[in-house]
Amino acid sequence: MSGQQIMRIYALRRWWVITSVLAGIIVGSVLAFTLPSIYESRSQAIVSVSDRTNVTAGESAAYVGDRIPTILEIAKSADFARVVAETPGVDLSASEVRSALQFALVPETTVIGITANADDPNVARQLADAASETISDSFLISQLGPDSGLEISVLQEAGEGTSAVFPDPVRFIAFGGLAGLTVGLILAPLRHGLDRRVRDVRDIRNTVGAQLLGVRDAAPSRSLRRMVANSGVATSTPVLLARLGVVGSRTGTRALALCGIEGVGNELASDLVETAAASGLNCALVSADPAALQTAHYRELSQVRGIDVVDADGGRGGGILSGRDLVAAMPRPYDSYDLIVYLGTDLVARPDASLYLDRADVAIIVTGEAPERSDLLVTRELIRAHGSAVDGFVVVSRNDRVGSGRSRAYGDRPRRAVKSRERTEPDISRGSRSSSIREAADWRDASEPATAEMEVVAVPRSREVPVRGSVDHITQPNSAGGQK
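User: That's the sequence. What structure does it adopt?
Assistant: Structure tokens below.
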């Protein structure tokens, strides 16, 4: 994993890190103001050579330096603590006195610093004074011996400025924030690894190993809008068809396999065949989703000139049509079509629809912006199992599913009705239709002015093609494998 990927994980899971830091600061603040306070008091004693000793100043300093470690060890002993505990005004046991007192030599001097800690400032001060008096008393001299030649006297008594040394609010809050940051940096990648849902389009791209081809979403996220603005992602159906090699280069029948995630893809498939048919292409939409084929939209779509909708399930419930059965179910010869769109809205739920990948030139994954990672992986492996590769993916709205109704795409203008193949409508040649419906599924920004060559033929509401009752106009196989 590269450093860029690690930083991206932390950027996606930043709220885990921020929450952990805030929680650490809150815990540190609570502990700083709820734990019992510890007060500290200091006093000092100085060690020198007795006047009775006839030594030089240099010899005196060396002699005291040699004896001070012994003095410190005596001051830390249990006997010394017992004597301090017996001092009037000290209401602590010998063990408590021993744990509350600390002795240390002040660097480059012969001064012994005495520190007393207690939960009461007065007790800390009394304890520090009692220790300095005891260390300068005859007790310590008797421990060193009468011939030691040392004198110990109180240099500084414990003052009134006794302060609380624990807990330190600043230190507790700082360490709480650092502890929270550490926990957040550990939890963020763990949470990211356990998350089954991808967070943005870059996650989809990394999972399926293919590029983003187009966007069909009326309300894309900010990151998706930014990606569309900074890359050559198709936001209109004609541009997407051009990128897929359907228009602009007539090389026989072009077959597209749309592999949906979680039931999406119906609207995209409809837009592709409608726009291609408006350009004068003969199109077939092969769908293995019987529920979608029962909707009014698909019944209307089957009446548009140049479009054949094929029910690949045929109501049999025993699997999809393939091979000769599929060819027999098509109203026209297979080679007479310019574009065939094979639609499987959910390969995970119905993996048998992946059989169409064997007949497709291009395999495209159609997904919402935040699918399940496991669904992406299963779909990718199904495509690979048929010897194909994922040629790209298209992000659509989650409303692009059965029963959701027609939804506008990102920056879409209102859709225009296409002329049906009812005989009451006049015939339209391929040349004139090519310019009359280029705007049929345009996903560009609504604020963009239409170009002059875009003539939109709108069918008035009163002349819309009526739905002819049932799904009989969708080509279905009969029991003998032929056509109805």
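The two ends are 56 Å apart (CA to CA).
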